[in-house]
Design goal:
The protein has 323 residues and is α/β, with parallel strands linked by helices. Helix content is 44%, strand content 8%.
């Protein structure tokens, strides 16, 4: 049975405009010779120019993403800290790069100690009770300012009703470039807060808080110089630090008298507590001795050692705070 014929609804030759936003693929139905040539090129390890261009474009995009990530993290550091619930804020900044009379052996690298942060400021945040000012940390802060470009800031938490002016300015005057955080190597943020024990937070994601002034002092001192490689000497330093905080600063009168005799004996054999080198033991011992109020009645060798510490100039913030 014959079928009726339908007229064509469009012309025989239709020209279609293809989009130009996508890259073009080679024709898979090319002649056999071209296929053999392409296979030969791939066997020799060569890469198509289009693939090379695509890889270069991807590398450029990834580079820009990493730069953007670093910029966003740096901006986030300027807005928030691990303790962002601050009601009353008083800021001061300090950056000093002067020659130090105290020399530490060995070099320290912030990237190896604190991890690479892709341009964001490494901010060390310390919560301290104003009723118990951390004098050792003020001394270490002074030493850090001589080693690195430090952006120092003081805040007051809402849990504290009022803070004396000397505590608000304990890290020094405001720096003129404090708004440009990218100019600094290290952030030192001190928050006066009603806490039972001093706390330090550096990276909320990668590490837990460090509690206790002695432990925080150990952490900060490692940014200045590595601990002694000799296990016996490292143990001696740690021992003096513990004695200073737990017996000299917090002990009874009998314990303090025993520590003073031990100090006098050790300083009669060497210039510093842990041998010929100035160490964390001297910082902790000096600050805790001033806190205990035993400095005026200290023996001869201890008095000489106190003058040697004060001649370094790093103990001025702690001494002013305790006066």
């Amino acid at each position: 049975m014959p079928m009726y014929q339908v007229k064509p609804i469009c012309g025989g030759h239709i020209k279609t405009d293809l989009p130009t936003c996508m890259y073009k693929l080679p024709n898979v139905h090319a002649q056999q010779g071209n296929s053999c040539t392409s296979e030969h090129a791939l066997q020799n390890g060569e890469v198509e120019p289009a693939v090379k261009a695509l890889e270069a474009r991807q590398d450029e995009i990834m580079r820009k993403l990493y730069e953007l990530k670093a910029a966003v993290e740096g901006l986030a550091k300027t807005v928030t800290t691990p303790d962002a619930d601050l009601d009353l804020t008083v800021s001061s900044s300090l950056s000093c790069q002067s020659s130090s009379s105290t020399t530490f052996r060995g070099a320290t690298d912030l990237d190896s100690l604190l991890g690479k942060d892709l341009g964001a400021l490494r901010d060390i945040v310390i919560n301290a009770n104003p009723a118990q000012p951390p004098t050792t940390l003020l001394v270490l802060h002074s030493l850090l300012c001589q080693r690195y470009r430090v952006l120092s800031t003081v805040h007051v938490h809402s849990s504290v009703a009022s803070v004396p002016q000397q505590l608000l300015s304990c890290l020094g005057p405001r720096h003129a470039d404090s708004y440009a955080r990218q100019m600094f190597q290290l952030g030192f943020t001190l928050i006066w807060k009603d806490v039972p024990k001093l706390q330090m937070k550096f990276s909320v994601q990668n590490m837990c808080p460090i509690e206790g002034e002695a432990n925080v002092a150990r952490f900060l001192f490692k940014l200045l110089a590595p601990y002694p490689s000799d296990p016996a000497l490292a143990t001696l330093v740690d021992s003096w630090v513990d004695i200073a905080f737990f017996q000299l600063a917090e002990g009874s009168a009998k314990e303090q008298a025993t520590v003073l005799r031990a100090l006098n004996s050790a300083l009669g054999r060497s210039a510093w507590l842990a041998g010929p080198e100035f160490s964390l033991a001297d910082i902790a011992g000096y600050c805790c001795l001033l806190q205990s109020g035993s400095a005026p009645s200290a023996p001869t060798h201890v008095q000489r050692w106190i003058k040697s510490c004060e001649n370094l100039g790093h103990f001025s913030p702690a001494k002013l705070l305790l006066q």
